């Protein structure tokens, strides 16, 4: 599958749906009929993007986008409006399209938000690491990382649920056997927590195991 899409579309849309065409192009599309239904599915489905087909909902879709952005701040949102319909350009949607347009145009506008394929994307629970873009996405966050932080997170994700010793982290992330400079690792772990955690003082994902190392719980 190219990407997972949560698609909001009214039951009686005046315009033809793009969903069948996207599925033929190997996108995984789940359709719900209301904003509330989408909010109930987001955490379970963990989609790569959300499409709000507002033209089929007889609304601007702005409130739905705002509600989703409040719940999942890092989730890309594409808003489809009726011809001539206008919303604020600095609103919660990443892309705004007005009907009519082709399936090809929709796919082109979606392309920047489609995760890389194969080994470029590493997933551990709700944490998605794009190794090519050096970008991590988890609930409510999407953060660009440095190459070192990307490598450090990759090591922890590949052994999630297990304690990774400080020595192993130094060796794999810094290519060194020297572990005397503990401050360097501590600082990088704190930066990772800022990227992953809602509350860095009470981390949910990246745990410190005293005198041993760190563990990623997902």
CATH C-level label of the largest domain: Alpha Beta
CATH topology of the largest domain: Rossmann fold
Low confidence ranges? none
User: Which percent band covers the strand fraction?
Assistant: 15-25%
Roughly how many Å is the radius of gyration?
A: 20 Å
Annotated CATH architecture of the largest domain: 3-Layer(aba) Sandwich
Number of domains: 2
Mean model confidence by pLDDT: 86
Question: Percent helix among the residues?
Answer: 25-40%
The coarse silhouette is elongated
- Which homologous superfamily in CATH is the superfamily of the largest domain? Response regulator
Strand order of the largest sheet: 2-1-3-4-5
How many beta-strand segments? 12
Structure description:
With 218 residues, the protein is α/β, with parallel strands linked by helices. The protein folds into two domains: 110 residues, 3-Layer(aba) Sandwich (Rossmann fold); 99 residues, Winged helix-like DNA-binding domain superfamily/Winged helix DNA-binding domain (Arc Repressor Mutant, subunit A), CATH 1.10.10. Helices cover 33% and strands 23% of the residues. It has a five-stranded parallel β-sheet, sandwiched between helices. Helix 5 crosses helix 6. The mean pLDDT is 86.
């Amino acid at each position: 599958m190219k990407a997972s899409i949560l698609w909001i579309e009214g039951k009686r849309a005046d315009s033809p749906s793009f969903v069948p065409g996207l599925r033929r192009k190997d996108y995984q599309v789940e359709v719900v009929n209301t904003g509330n239904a989408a909010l109930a599915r987001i955490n379970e489905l963990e989609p790569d993007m959300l499409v709000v087909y507002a033209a089929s909902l007889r609304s601007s879709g702005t409130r739905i986008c705002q509600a989703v952005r409040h719940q999942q701040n890092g989730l890309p949102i594409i808003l489809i409006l009726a011809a001539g319909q206008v919303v604020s350009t600095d609103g919660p949607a990443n892309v705004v399209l007005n009907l009519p347009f082709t399936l090809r145009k929709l796919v082109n506008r979606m392309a920047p938000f489609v995760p890389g394929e194969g080994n470029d994307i590493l997933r551990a629970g709700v944490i998605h690491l794009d190794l090519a873009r050096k970008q991590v996405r988890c609930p409510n966050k999407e953060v660009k990382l440095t190459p070192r932080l990307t490598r450090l997170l990759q090591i922890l994700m590949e052994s999630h649920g297990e304690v990774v010793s400080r020595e192993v982290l130094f060796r794999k992330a810094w290519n060194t056997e020297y572990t005397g400079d503990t401050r360097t690792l501590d600082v990088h772990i704190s930066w990772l927590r800022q990227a992953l955690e809602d509350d860095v003082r009470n981390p949910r994902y990246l745990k410190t195991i005293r005198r041993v190392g760190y563990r990623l719980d997902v």
